Description:
This protein is mainly alpha-helical. The chain folds into four domains: 2-37; 44-194 and 368-522, no CATH class; 195-251 and 269-351, no CATH class; 528-687, Methane Monooxygenase Hydroxylase, Chain G, domain 1, CATH 1.20.58. The protein is built from 30 helices and no strands.
Amino acid sequence: MTDIAKNPASPAPRSRAMFPQYARQTMQRGLALQRDWLPIPAGWPFAARTTLAGLLALYVAYTLQLDTPYSAMTTVLIVSNPVRGMILSKSIYRFLGTLVGAVASIVLLELFSQTPVLFFTGFALWLGLCTTVATLLRHFRSYAAVLAGYTVSLVAFSAAATPDQTFQIISGRISVVSVGIVCSAVVSALFAGSGATNDLKKRLLKLSQDLIAYMDLSLFREPGIAHVPERRAAANSIIQINDLIEFAATESGEIEQRRRALRAALAALPGTLAEAPFVGGALSPADHALLGPGSHRLETTADVERLRQDVRARIEMKPETEAQDLPQTASALVRLDALLDRLLFALTTLEARTPTPGDYRAAIFHHRDYRTAVKNGVRAALAVSIASVFWVMTAWNTGALLMSLVGPLVSMLATRDRPELASIDFMKGIVLSTFVGFIFSFAILPHIDGFPLLACAFGVVLFIGAWIMSVPQYAGMAAGFLIFFVTLVAVGNPMKFDVEGYLDNAMILVLGAVFTVVAFQTILPDSPERNVKRLSRSIRHDLGQLINSAALPDLTAYEQNTHSLLIRLSELTAATPDARPMLDGGIAALRIGQEIIWARRAIVETGLIDPDLRAHFRRLSVIDGNPHEAAVLAVTLSARVEAIPSTDPQHRAAFLRAAQSMREVSDQIRERAYFFVKNGGLSNAHGN
């Protein structure tokens, strides 16, 4: 044995060395066959975690002898998410929303428990208020507001019949929610990993690459073209990353330290994306020859830095006579320098591996649509009011369950982009849950003895439902199915098998689901066409405020606000393809606002104070209703600014840049005049 061990050419060591390679090849072939013949569903890790957390919550609730142990499992299903950071964030806000809703329940019961009309009215007003607030908020803060509203329907209606047990009912509700939250957090911490953090880092790298490619395309390869699809894709990526930062910050201390810097970097990008094609189109052929693909190919952040250095060198060497003969080219170079400066700040921040020191206050602006928020609140209040009248008139003994369904659905779905479609998906899931729940309750459960068998039976349904939830187009239906399947089966200790009670509950749930669909279709229904007009009016209104502003407007704030409206407008073009011209008009309005700010900034930098000139700028506000007059005023203003005498070459160049900006304003107004016509809409766009 000693000789063999010392002899490297002996066959035994060679065979042992070959074995790992052979084993790896065999394993790879086996995995390839498995992928071809028995593919594993992509959402299985999420389904497995959700199933495990749900069963764990049910077991803990049984152990603690809570009154409604199945509600702990329902909490798990509601907060379930493929990303751990989202689970943690949603769980925190679910707990806070439950607490606020519990307090509201106590107040309503204390004040109106003996007067049903006032009690129902108070609940309707509270739910309407919470729905309004939820529409104005984002992420899981919105969900917390929704939960604060509908928790009253889950707690107060049960406690109204037995007011002496109010504290027990509320504490039981908080207990099952807490159990579900803790179980979800434990399972996600053990098995989910840092999903949001890893996903964020990948998306930041991809966004940096996409931004550089977009700049190369817009500035040099295809300048002067809007590149709307590419810009829309980048804008959607920015919004998704901005949302993901919040969830990743709950997982990672590093992301928490970088959060402000990352959001400031993202805030600098919307205006940069919008301005790049126009700056590229304004560059002279000579500038394109010196700065374009022949000299630069933008592929990395270092390439962008070199381009900025060359642009600054070009600005310094450009003859004054050339700047006077072609003021638009000098203006384009200055704009390009500022654009690259913002882009480099964003790129270096996105690509940084450590926290970047600095005082970062900017963040992606979220447009708050107060009109839609009030409409959603009024709809929710009216819907539960009608449902409560139905309950009182029919004296249905399970009417509380109707309120417990209608309240959450009309409030929660109102925050979706297309609530009328989401309500149909939920209705499908609820109807399916009644059939599956009946079979499970009366054909399977009676033969189960002990928690292990119960876990096996429940686990199959939970896993399949959670896996379907991971498929976006079926997520709403699967969520409705799982949540109300668990609610209908209502496993307790001991278990009660009541066919009549089950059918009564199933009927009221289906009725409530149908009522919710009808409510979204008939009570202040959503109209894509009206939304397009409303968003267009908001864009024109913001532009009017910018024009009338006495102080120099904040360019970044204006760009973010208008960009958020344009994103909502672009989303509506899918449902209303004819609205595309209005999106183009909105982009022109953004461009006009940018040019006005640049013109005013150039004049301010010269130190010139001319009240007459300022009044002339304010006259451009006639653009909202009389675009043709505004276009003429812009040309007049351009000529007036260009004629301002100055012996200082830098001041002279600034006036020329301002004049060029106002000519651009006139061109944009003339090209998209239909967008600014009084009561402008789709008919004006098509008639243009």
